[in-house]
C-alpha cells in the first residue's frame, strides 16, 4: 500500500479526538487497521481521492456515520459493515453520535488484488474488478447489517488470543474476501440512508432533550414541533443513536443524576426533579436499575468533596 494511503489514514485518525490507531500489513496490498475514537461528536475528513483503494469498515462498538457524496447520511452500529472506494470519502464529515467508536477497517488495493492475489486466492473469481462492480460501482457505498458469518470473521480478527492473532487475521481476511465474492447482497439487510436535513433535525431534537433533562416531551409534541412523522422520528433516532428516545434520554438522566450525587449538596428529591422525575421513589427505582444501588448509597460510596 502506498505511503500516501498511510498519510490519509493517519490524518483521519488525528482529527478524531482521543484516538488509537494500529495498521497491520497482512499481504501486499491488503491491510488491517484498528481504530478507536472518543470525545468528539464529529470531524471533517479531506484527502486525495483513491478510487482504486477499497475500504471495508466494521463497527465493533459505539456508532459511526458520515455524509456521502449524494447528500445522504448512513450510520453503522455494532456488527454493521460498509464498503466504499476511498474517493467517496475524500471530502466528508464523520459523526460519532455517542462520542465513541471502536472498529476496524480492511484496505484493499484493487489493482494489486487482481494482478497479484495472495496465493490461496489464485485461480478464484476474487478480483478487484469483482468487488468494485458488486459493491462500489459508480461511487456507491454499500452498508449492510452483519450476518452471523461476517461477525464471526471480523470477531476472530480482534478476539483471538494475542499469540495467534496475526495468523487468524491473515486467514480471516481471505475468508472475508471469499464470502464477499459469494454474498447475495440483494438478500442482505441494507442500512437505511437518510437525507442530511432529516439527520440535522434529529440532532436538534437530541440536543433539546439532553439540554433540558428536567422537562418531559412526548413523541407527539416533538413531531409537531419539528414537522416530522412520529414513526420516522423514532426510527431515525434509533438508527443514529442506537437506542430508542426513551432509553437514550434515560441514560443521560441517570448519568447527570450520578454527577449531582457526587458533586452537589442537593437532596435526593431535588436531584430527581432536576432529571425529570416528579416521583422520588420512581427516580430511585430507575437509578437502582442503572447503577445497582439506591441514590443515597451511591452518594455515600462516590462522594467527591471539594
Structure characterization notes:
With 306 residues, the chain is α+β, with helices and mostly antiparallel strands. The protein folds into 2 domains: 189 residues, Jelly Rolls, CATH 2.60.120.810; 108 residues, Homeodomain-like (Arc Repressor Mutant, subunit A). It is built from 12 helices and 11 strands. Helix 4 runs antiparallel to helix 5. The radius of gyration is 22 Å and the shape is elongated. The mean pLDDT is 88.
Give the SSE map.
Elements: H1 3-14, E1 18-27, E2 30-38, E3 42-46, E4 50-62, E5 64-67, E6 72-76, E7 80-86, E8 91-95, E9 100-109, H2 110-115, H3 128-135, E10 142-145, H4 148-159, H5 165-182, E11 194-195, H6 196-211, H7 219-226, H8 230-241, H9 245-263, H10 268-274, H11 280-291, H12 295-302
Antiparallel strand pairs: 1-2, 2-9, 3-8, 4-7, 4-9, 5-6, 5-8, 6-11, 7-10
Summarize the structure in short.
The chain has helices at about 5-15, 110-115, 130-135, 150-160, 165-180, 195-210, 220-225, 230-240, 245-265, 270-275, 280-290, 295-300, and strands at about 20-25, 30-40, 40-45, 50-60, 65, 70-75, 80-85, 90-95, 100-110, 140-145, 195. With about 300 residues, the protein is α+β, with helices and mostly antiparallel strands. The relative contact order is 0.10.
Amino acid at each position: 500500500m502506498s505511503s500516501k494511503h498511510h498519510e490519509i489514514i493517519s490524518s483521519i485518525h488525528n482529527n478524531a479526538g482521543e484516538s488509537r490507531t494500529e495498521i497491520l500489513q497482512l499481504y501486499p496490498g491488503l491491510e488491517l487497521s484498528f481504530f478507536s475514537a472518543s470525545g468528539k461528536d464529529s470531524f471533517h475528513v479531506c484527502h486525495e481521492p483513491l478510487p482504486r483503494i477499497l475500504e471495508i469498515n466494521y463497527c465493533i462498538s459505539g456508532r459511526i456515520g458520515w455524509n456521502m457524496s449524494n447528500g445522504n447520511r448512513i450510520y453503522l452500529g455494532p456488527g454493521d459493515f460498509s464498503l466504499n472506494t476511498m474517493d467517496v470519502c475524500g471530502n466528508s464529515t464523520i459523526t460519532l453520535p455517542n462520542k465513541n467508536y471502536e472498529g476496524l477497517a480492511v484496505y484493499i488495493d484493487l489493482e494489486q488484488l487482481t494482478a497479484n492475489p495472495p496465493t490461496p486466492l489464485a485461480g478464484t473469481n476474487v478480483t478487484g474488478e469483482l468487488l468494485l462492480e458488486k459493491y462500489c460501482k459508480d461511487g456507491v457505498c454499500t452498508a449492510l447489517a452483519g450476518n452471523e458469518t461476517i461477525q464471526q470473521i471480523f470477531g476472530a480478527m480482534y478476539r483471538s488470543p494475542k499469540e495467534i492473532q496475526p495468523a487468524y487475521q491473515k486467514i480471516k481476511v481471505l475468508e472475508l474476501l471469499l464470502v464477499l465474492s459469494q454474498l447475495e447482497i440483494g438478500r442482505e439487510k441494507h442500512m437505511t440512508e437518510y437525507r442530511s436535513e432529516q439527520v440535522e433535525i434529529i440532532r436538534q431534537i437530541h440536543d433539546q432533550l439532553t439540554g433540558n433533562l428536567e422537562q418531559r416531551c412526548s413523541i407527539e409534541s416533538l413531531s409537531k414541533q419539528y414537522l416530522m412523522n412520529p414513526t420516522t422520528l423514532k426510527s431515525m433516532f434509533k438508527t443514529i443513536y442506537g437506542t430508542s428516545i426513551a432509553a437514550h434520554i434515560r441514560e443521560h438522566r441517570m448519568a447527570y443524576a450520578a454527577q449531582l450525587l457526587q458533586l452537589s449538596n442537593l437532596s435526593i428529591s431535588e436531584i430527581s426533579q432536576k432529571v425529570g422525575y416528579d416521583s422520588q421513589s420512581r427516580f430511585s427505582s430507575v437509578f437502582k436499575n442503572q447503577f445497582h444501588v439506591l441514590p443515597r448509597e451511591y452518594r455515600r460510596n462516590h462522594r467527591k468533596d471539594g
